[in-house]
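Protocol step 4 of 5: obtain the predicted structure for the target chain.
Materials: sequence only (see below). No template structures provided, no constraints applied. The aim of this step is simply to have a reference model before the mutagenesis design in step 5. Sequence pasted as it appears in the construct record:
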Amino acid sequence: METTVLLDGGAFFEGPRWRAGRLWFSDMHGREVMTVDEAGKCETVNVVPNRPSGLGWLPGGELLVVSMTDRRLLRDEDGTLVEHADLSGFADHECNDMVVDAEGRAYVGHFGFDHFSHAGFRPASLIAVEPDGEARVVAEDLMFPNGAVIANGGSTLIVAESYGRRLTAFDIRRDGSLDRRRIWAEIGMAPDGICLDAEGCIWVASPTERAVARIREGGAIADRLDLGRRAIACMLGGSDRQTLFVLTSETTQPSRALELRSARIETVRVDVPGDGRP
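Step 4 output (structure tokens):
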């Protein structure tokens, strides 16, 4: 398999989501939420001064955006971003990726420590934000919670633990709390963004491996694509959900990312379509 470059020249692309015929994503260090269609036409949707990351939608169609450095979840109201939830009481450092369920409940991860200086590692929590903005911690002691998916018809949440080099699963209770924590797969690589396919496998983007890999529950690698660049996140989309969009970069450091502007969106066709959420 070889990828095709769809979009080039961004600062640092993250949080891809397929919706309404377009790929939505954050240019984290460029401080914009953007979209691109399958022809490569790109648009800026919002400007987020405190760095955007995870994206999702409420049942009514309102866009939710994680604002990283001020640790807030924002909601788009007719093109204006307003506060949906203040997460600063739950996270001492940047908030990051997010998955939103069918009811509009958002699960948001955070760094737990000063990640960009690589100093003083501490585990972090996963925060659930209800559709009305009420927030609470639903899981603790995660080794840098990152990309997440909701599988099995909304009954299972699987989160990538970047520093744990594993994917961890939880049962989702009716009230949104999490139960029966277990290791879904030990994967031997640092996972960042992830997405789910219709056979229950998870595509994992790994910046340290500079690759994406399709992982089966238990950890077997069903497929792997080496990219030669840091793989930040991935998403299955397109009209049949059989296009794998891979967000890549030469660096993860903010100042270097702005200098190089090396972020890309690359695409490759796969055999199994996407499933679950996002």
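Step 4 remarks: The first strand starts at residue 4 and ends at 10. The two ends are 24 Å apart (CA to CA).
Proceed to step 5.
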